[in-house]
Amino acid sequence: MTDPLLLPMFAHIALTAFLYVALTVVRAPKVWGIGARADEINSLAGLESKISANLSNQFEWPLFFYAICVLLISSDFTYHPAYLWLAWIFVGGRLIHSCVQVFTSNIRLRGIVFTINFLAVLGMWGLLVFGYLFG
Question: What is the pLDDT of residues 53-63, one digit of tens each?
Answer without folding.
Answer: 999 999 999 99
